[in-house]
Design goal:
Chain lengths: ~300, ~290, ~210
């Protein structure tokens, strides 16, 4: 894509997040949930981060916004528009420049009318704009006076999406925005993200639904065991294993019911017992002794990025 | 004003972990504190029981002495050492507190479960009863019951036990009601498990921590109520050296300037109650491993 | 043997609207049928009705022309979408498996359940790992019918394929009847011999 000449709007470099967790009743140990994760996102594109739920993708969103819980330790570097993301900057940016569409509709304040809630507090008169968005999302005008419990799941979700849009953010992080929606609604929502991206904004779409990811995204980052093993153009996923780089992405493609529905043995390693070396090595068909020893660095390959020694 | 709020905030942060022990994690700290508090309370209690009756014999030669190195808390109008009497009185009060709270907690858990698993009729009856008991001031209620049962130890125990179960029962009822609708309980039913099996295997592990903490947090209430009812003269007979009795006696001499007779026993009472309260709070942190990963 | 929903209707309270109305549906033992409908159309309610978690207000659920019995292990087992809600957070996972009756080592191995996991608490495992336990529990109960309510929606494609392969193999071996509720059209096409649209099987005489 041509806009890659511009610097990325957000660059995450070698991000690791670990938590102090209780192991048994009294001992604490550090659990590494995200390890050495790299992403770059440019204005005008949708980057989908695809991986199974509960594997820590949402933490990435929290880390970018600086809203991780206190027992988390973060290492690595994050840059927004070339500026280092410090806690102070994060506090200034979130809700204005960077907006989050949260995972669950429980994020709505149950005691606040949704209209007021969607307006937010940073700008003086967003009401006009909000009405426009509500209309576009097919939310009837009476709804702004409703409380969240009066809305259906789908409606509440659309309110959440419009909340992010009203803030007029440059970077939108959507954390699983589609579950609980029917296919049409989901595609509709994703179309809105597409429109935002076409409007020169950057969208990070965190999802476990890989079908939807390649229906709408420009690039797909494949998330496995707390890191991104491959970043590929969405087009590569349409072609199949030949175009893909990492053995895990290939296996993922083959496992889809519309393809071969073929599984591989083993499970994703979970924080606390991550293997030494390449995280995918224990399940990989083409592993070498080297893969078991050292963690492969991220490298460019055929217009994408991959963390694998063997990928060609 | 802002300063004060800030200070209050910091104080709140430090309040429960008592001492700022930096290197240990919260749970280990809480456990250590639980052990320390427990042994402290047991020591005070043990000393009170072990002191022979002789030590509190009347001795008019040393009557009405202010605090000194010989009598740290001073002596009363009959020449008895107030420190010794207070410790002895404290152990009586703690015993009553423990017995009454145990009875009360057992009533609480049984009634709570009954309300949650019984018919809708019994649930509303029990709820009405809980509201009734929580609505009437405890002191008045205990005096009524104690008086009706002829005062003394029996009346006092019955009074305290009959009034303190309500809040625990309400807590347990809520917990059971919430558990009942959990998917894992409904799945268990479909796997052919009986109601009692589910109660014992699925629910009890959730209820036991609530029960223990509720029990310990009930002690201070029970002890304070015992003291106040005895103070008012509706509880233990005057010959029992309970803290309430000691405080009641001291009132006569307070105007005569014998402040030590009231101040020291009162402080010990507050200290013990506070220690037990802290014990409960800390135990909650240890027992509940599903608390936030602090 | 067949599991049959005969003219069932359901709503939670009298003043509420019907969630399921006059529905007729039937699964033969040894077949795998899919149910699809947009969200909010009552798929999960139907799943709970079929497995006996809810009792229909009108009509009845028949197994072999007889109503489902309330006692003992229900011959229709349900697996939910969210495994973390269906295991007791204070139980070790060994106990979760034992709840279903006897443990089949073979099945655990097929599902990729490692023996080290049995001693852990649910919050120490990921959703995909927990779902394997829920599937194992349902299969080991020996029930001849299985209702799968979006069981692989939250999982990655590889785990999804893994779990479904085990379920299908086991179903074939034991001649089980399976109802697959999913919004993933490709998955339903792959697994099921027949896919019903929930709207079309309501208000009709027969399917």
């Amino acid at each position: 894509m041509d806009n890659k000449q511009n610097p990325p709007i957000l660059e995450v470099d070698n991000l690791s997040i670990s938590f102090q967790m209780y192991d048994g009743r009294f001992d604490q140990k550090a659990l590494q949930i995200i390890s050495e994760l790299n992403i770059k996102i440019y204005a005008g594109e949708i980057l989908a981060i695809a991986g199974s739920s509960g594997s820590g993708k949402s933490l990435l969103a929290s880390a970018i916004l600086g809203i991780l819980p206190n027992n988390a330790t973060v290492t690595g570097k994050m840059c927004y528009n070339g500026q280092m993301l410090t806690p102070k900057l994060q506090k200034r940016l979130r809700g204005t420049e960077i907006a989050l569409v949260p995972q669950s509709v429980d994020f709505l304040d149950p005691l606040m009318q949704v209209g007021t809630q969607a307006d937010g507090h940073k700008k003086p008169f967003p009401t006009q704009k909000r009405r426009r968005f509500f209309q576009r999302f097919g939310l009837p005008s009476g709804i702004e006076k409703c409380y969240p419990f009066q809305l259906s799941g789908g409606m509440a979700r659309r309110v959440l999406v419009s909340t992010a849009l009203i803030a007029d953010a440059q970077l939108i992080i959507a954390d699983e925005p589609t579950p609980g929606m029917g296919l049409e609604q989901a595609l509709d929502t994703l179309k809105m993200f597409r429109e935002m991206a076409d409007d020169k904004k950057a969208v990070i779409l965190i999802t476990h639904d890989i079908d939807l990811a390649f229906a709408v995204a420009d690039r797909i980052a494949v998330f496995y065991a707390g890191t991104i093993v491959e970043t590929a153009n969405a087009h590569d996923f349409q072609i199949g294993p030949v175009a893909l780089r990492h053995p895990y992405s290939k296996a993922l493609w083959r496992a889809l019911p519309q393809n071969e529905f073929e599984s591989i043995a083993g499970v994703q390693p979970y924080a606390g017992n991550l293997p030494k070396g390449c995280l995918f090595a224990p399940r990989c068909k083409c592993k070498t002794p080297r893969c078991m020893q050292e963690s492969p660095p991220l490298r460019m390959l055929r217009g994408g990025e991959v963390r694998c020694f063997c990928a060609k | 004003m802002k300063k004060l709020r800030q200070w209050l905030f910091h104080w709140q942060q430090w309040k429960t972990p008592l001492l700022p022990m930096k290197r240990l994690n919260v749970r280990t700290k809480a456990f250590a504190l639980t052990v320390i508090l427990f042994s402290l309370i047991v020591t005070i209690y043990g000393v009170g029981i072990l002191i022979p009756q002789k030590a509190v014999a009347t001795d008019f030669a040393h009557a009405k002495q202010p605090p000194s190195w010989q009598h740290l808390f001073g002596t009363d109008n009959l020449g008895r050492d107030i420190l010794v009497r207070t410790l002895k009185g404290m152990s009586v009060s703690v015993t009553i507190g423990i017995v009454a709270s145990c009875i009360s907690a057992v009533i609480g858990i049984l009634i709570g479960i009954a309300a949650a698993v019984g018919s809708r009729f019994w649930d509303s009856v029990i709820n009405w009863l809980i509201d009734l008991i929580m609505g009437i001031p405890h002191t008045v209620f205990i005096i009524l019951i104690s008086f009706a049962l002829g005062r003394g130890l029996k009346g006092l125990l019955a009074g305290i036990a009959a009034t303190h179960w309500a809040s625990l029962a309400r807590l347990i009822r809520g917990e059971v009601l919430q558990l009942r609708n959990q998917h894992y309980i409904t799945v268990s039913r479909r796997l052919g498990k009986s109601g009692s099996w589910i109660l014992i295997h699925h629910m009890l592990p959730h209820l036991v921590p609530q029960f223990l903490v509720g029990l310990i947090l009930m002690f201070p209430h029970a002890i304070l109520h015992e003291a106040s009812i005895s103070f008012l003269g509706y509880g233990l007979p005057p010959e029992q050296p309970a803290v309430g009795i000691i405080l009641a006696e001291s009132m006569t001499y307070l105007s005569a300037g014998m402040w030590w007779m009231a101040v020291f026993p009162g402080l010990v009472l507050v200290l013990i109650v506070w220690l037990i309260d802290q014990l409960g709070e800390n135990l909650r942190r240890v027992i509940d491993p599903f608390h936030a990963q602090e | 043997m067949c599991l049959k929903a005969k003219d069932i209707s359901f709503r939670y309270a009298k003043h509420q609207s019907w969630i399921v109305q006059n529905l007729n549906f039937c699964v033969e033992q040894g077949t795998c049928v899919g149910l699809s409908a947009p969200s909010g159309a009552g798929k999960s309610t139907l799943a709970m009705l079929l497995a006996g978690y809810l009792t229909p207000v009108e009509g009845e659920i028949l197994l072999n022309e007889k109503p489902l019995s309330k006692k003992g292990i229900c011959p229709v087992q349900l697996i939910y979408q969210h495994p973390e809600q269906t295991v007791n957070p204070r139980w070790r996972l060994r106990k979760v498996l034992e709840e279903s009756g006897q443990i089949s080592e073979e099945l655990l191995a097929a599902l990729g359940i490692e023996s080290a996991w049995l001693g852990r608490f649910p919050q120490e495992l990921s959703g995909g790992e927990l779902q394997r336990f829920c599937v194992a529990r349902a299969l080991m109960s020996g029930a001849p019918f299985l209702i799968c309510d979006e069981i692989s929606t939250m999982l990655d494609a590889i785990t999804q394929a893994q779990i479904w392969h085990v379920v299908c193999d086991e179903a074939k071996k034991r001649n089980m009847g399976i109802v697959v509720i999913t919004h993933n059209y490709h998955l339903a096409r792959h697994l099921c011999s027949q896919i019903y649209d929930l709207h079309k099987i309501q208000n009709t005489e027969k399917i």
